[in-house]
Amino acid sequence: MTEATCPQQALAQRQAADWFALLSSGEAGEHERRQWLDWRQAAPVHEAAWCQVEEVVSRFQSLPPALAQHTLNAPALDRRAALKLLATLLAIGGAAAAGMRSELAQQTFADLSTGVGERRSWTLADHTHLHLNARSAASVQFEGRRRQVRLYSGDFMFQVQGRSDPHPLQITTEHGRIEAEAARFMVSQRAGRVAVSLFEGALRLQPDTAPWQALGAGQSALLQPGRGVSVGPLQPQVAAWERGLVFAEGMPLRHYLAQLAPYRTGLLSCDAVAGRLRVSGVFSLDHSDRLLAQLPDILPVRVRYFSRYWVRVEALG
Predict the structure, then answer these.
(1) What is the pLDDT of residues 36-69, one digit of tens each?
(2) FecR N-terminal domain location, by residue (predicted)?
């Protein structure tokens, strides 16, 4: 990039960020969208800047949890938040790249990982059966009698076999540790949230800032930084993703879309009103485009495709 082109490209990037902020805020009407298309066609540097926006959006699912939490889980982005976010993402080539690459390296070089829409199973050296949902990654370390699995991000179903030695399987999460000897359980670690669901056996949980706590079959737990363990009843169909399904019984739309997100490349979001609408039914995760196309038939929403990487569900009216 030469000094002569830097100012022009920098201006186009700022304008592209501004358009992104406006379009993602829900404030844009048909007039603004036509102006956006006119701006893109006005100069090659504008189209190149917008393509960079689409490329950045397509990488949202691979961002570190602390940053991705503000994009994928937020029901809407106001203009200031969107501008700040995109400015940060467009700086990947600068100082922010080191931190980004560190997290992406964890995903890339994990011992076990899955891609978009991919589910896989492994049998570990101690005969533990481990099933990963789409966009999940973990590393395994077995040394002597030490058995440890480190979770980076995703959904994980464990079937741990009973053993005669006193060394349980240890699972390291973002917000604490889990110990299991003979149990069937699921751990979901996405966007800074760690949820544990126990179907059979018993577990011991230790949040980063609290003592060990027992969890029994039929219970679930949420590990939260600085708040210990929050225990509640097990949701029976929480692991339906193993069969490629979503069981929704009055499920908030924002939670429903969060389950579809690992099966799509790019950004899938909704506005605040749409996010509170309730969805019921049994749906196949392997047909996310079909599920999105069906949403306007069952809910008062519209599904807007800004690009193949950027889909937003909005409430009507």
Answers:
(1) 888 888 888 888 877 777 666 555 444 443 333 3
(2) 14-55
